[in-house]
């Protein structure tokens, strides 16, 4: 393990120059305090956990100090937002501080969100607020524990700076980690501005840094696109299997790595509702839960369009045709594991849809229902209105399991006890806004081990109280 002072930087993206990003110095928070840190995220860059207790840790991750090797840059990109192309977006409130290389030779971007205005702030103040920073921190660390690919969060700091959104709040910063911060929207920007030389440079950079094996393919760019497609659809399959709603799947929020990225008004399902809309700004339901696979496919088509100067259109169309079958196969594989169904049977999809339809009709709690099924707990019947219909389904389910019992032992390992419900996050945020960070830290620790019952943490397994149902979450941060 290493110290903050000994982190090794190799700022490859900054070396691409001003065509791809702008130099910006962070605007520090006043009177910064550490809200929470992640030992798991620190381990990704070999950082000793004791460093979180130092004053330097808070100073670096609140913008007050920089490493001498750091080269803070605001990245430029564009994207389709709610289906409409926005010609120039970019890092409006975040800065890529630099890239750290760990002992395994892996590069990790250090990205500071809420670091102040940039050339891409579009009249905004460039700040993040405490509630959104806490929400992103918790999700970034909870999703990987569930097996869902995601960017990571190293820490959150808060200051005394007033920030005005729907109400006055306090400014905060979040340090995000990812092997790359390149988005679909990066490629769209250079394609639509007809900067094809820069687009080629970006493609080559992405091949070298993210998809080096694709360089050996007959068509490296097409092979890279196929890898992005497969990772993206596999990620969305995990979202659907674990009831995660992203809420704002704009192309500028889609990572070239196929990881969950740019958390805004996300939510995990409470009661099962296939058409759940977690973003109260999404009036048309474009990003409803059941539309996420189709939107991922749509976004991949946008990326494909941006690659057409260098890949044959028909080849891209053929690749896109594999997206939904890829998703469906992975989603069914995950749900079979959750239900303890070994192998593949022709009736599996129909049997699964029957369960989900009954959950929809009964407003069954998605996570509690699947966990009780995994535990063979008879109280699972209480989740259903029509218990006779459920009993008939259960008989078929048990027959499906009995056909090959080899998958039964692993059910508990893929049905979480603890999930980041919105009401749990809100309780932690409410306390943190009164400078009590204990609940954020406690919830974070519980979510690190979601599949194992933890003594004394029964409160985190409960369905939401009345006030915590269908909390409205906006993009405002």
Describe the structure.
The protein is α+β, with helices and mostly antiparallel strands and 477 residues long. It folds into 2 domains: 8-180, no CATH class; 182-415, no CATH class. It is built from 14 helices and 13 strands. Strands 1, 3, 7, 8, 9, 10 and 11 form a 7-stranded antiparallel β-sheet that branches. Strands 2-4 form a two-stranded antiparallel sheet. Strands 5-6 form a two-stranded antiparallel sheet. β5 and β6 (84-86) form a beta hairpin. The chain is globular and about 65 Å long. It starts with 7 loop residues before the first strand and ends in a 30-residue tail after the last helix. The model has no long low-confidence stretch (mean pLDDT 96).
- Going by helix content, strand content and strand pairing, the class is alpha+beta
What is the number of domains? 2
If you compute it from the alpha carbons, what radius of gyration comes out, rounded to the nearest whole angstrom? 23 Å
Q: What is the average of the pLDDT values? A: 96
Task: Give the low-confidence spans.
Answer: none
Helix content: 25-40%
Q: Strand-and-helix sequence, N→C?
A: EEEHHEEEEEEHEEHHHEEHHHHHHHH
Record field, number of beta strands: 13
Percentage beta strand: 5-15%
